[in-house]
Amino acid sequence: MTTPVYIYIAYTIISISMTIWVARTLQRNGRIFLVEAFGGKEEMADSVNHLLVVGYYLINCGFILLYLRFGTKPETLVEGIEYIATKLGVVLLVLGAMHFFNIFNFDRMRKKGRLSASTDMPPVIEK
Q1: pTM above 0.85?
Q2: What sign has the CA pseudo-torsion 84, 89, 93, 99?
Q3: What is the C-alpha to C-alpha distance for residues 34 and 41, in angstroms, rounded to an integer?
């Protein structure tokens, strides 16, 4: 195998490992947020949490593998380190953007749930 092949393998392994670590962290720590967003419905929150993780893996692994093709093919160790650092930086930015997009949407859901819960109370009848 040639130097570029080793560099591509290193990039792929590191990127997918980071994706797995981030996904596990988000799944474990995001559960509480989702339970609140779904009004205490734990089964629904767990189901959505699992679906989010599956989608997260599909999108990120697809992006990592497609992004492998772009850029100048590294020939030396220094170019390889720069290649991996640049690729990982972009992968991390994409992961972070996806995370904030999801948090933004779930926060909107949580606020909407709180608003509807406060309006579902029966009216107070004064005598």
Answers
A1: no
A2: positive
A3: 9
